[in-house]
Amino acid sequence: MKNWWFIRGLRKGIMTEKYPKELPEWSTEIQGQGNANCPTNAIKDEKWIKEKCIFCRRCYPNYKPNLNPRIYTVKKTQPLFKKSFYLYPIDSGSCGGCNMELKLLSSPEYDMTRFGIFFTNTPRHADALIIMGVLTEKMKEVLRKAYDAMPEPKVIILLGACAISGGIIGEGIPLEAAIEIAGCPPNPFTILEALTRVKEK
Ligand code: SF4
Ligand code: SF4
User: Pocket of ligand 2, candidates 162, 168, 180: which has the most ligand atoms within 8 Å of its Cβ, to mutate?
Assistant: First the structure.
């Protein structure tokens, strides 16, 4: 029963997910060999490029998920965020998929607050700008204003293939990011683990 955690939570107190007992197949790392009809050129010389993959499965069965969910790249860490880390999510032109997965982090199942990670409604209180979607003309100025309003130190996080590489429909966000979280959309385990990494020394 899907909601069994809720009943156990009522009986025993708060229950949260420890680590996935069953990992989702997609979006995880993909491995394989041979030709692939990839719409985003995410396979080049038989090497999979996580930042470009939109998980359309056109390369299946030559390329299959290997169930490794760690499809993120941490380029910069900020030890000052170790105790509390406030995120300001911003949608620069998404389909809504990344937004839904990100929102799940505040559910009891994932509970990002146990790691000291919180959402804030204003960039003035934010440590990180978490950007979803391709770069759209009208959001360029909004992104700049949100970033300028944030106090130092601050980092940028790119969430999903659209923000990192433009995915299949556009142009990625041309800003230097502390973390790039691949996937289309990224699964919540991947997002949560990547966010905890940026807080490490
Ligand atoms: S799943 Fe789709 S986008 Fe990803 S490598 Fe395969 S064909 Fe390319
Ligand atoms: S990466 Fe995929 S899920 Fe996220 S906004 Fe782009 S198309 Fe939607």
Answer: 162
**Tens of each residue's pLDDT in the chain, 201 residues:** 555 656 666 676 665 666 556 677 889 999 999 989 999 999 999 999 999 999 999 999 999 999 999 999 999 999 999 999 999 999 999 999 999 999 999 988 889 999 999 999 999 999 999 999 999 999 999 999 999 999 999 999 999 999 999 999 999 999 999 999 999 999 999 999 999 999 885
For residue 180, give the DSSP letter: E
Which residue puts its alpha carbon closest to atom 5 of ligand 2? 94
- Domain spans in the chain, listed from the N-terminal domain onward: 28-63, 70-197
Determine the Cα–Cα distance for residues 77 and 60; give it in Å rounded to an integer.
Answer: 35
Q: Of all atoms in ligand 1, which is nearest to the CA of residue 49?
A: 5
Is ligand 2 within 6 A of the CB of residue 167? yes
- Residue 157 Cα to ligand 2 midpoint, Å, equals 15
- 50 by DSSP, 3-state: which? helix
Q: Which ligand gives the minimal distance to the CA of 184?
A: 2
- Phi–psi pair at 88, nearest 5 degrees: -115, 105
Q: What is the CATH number of domain 70-197?
A: 3.40.50.12280
What is the DSSP secondary structure assignment for residue 40, as one 8-state letter?
A: T
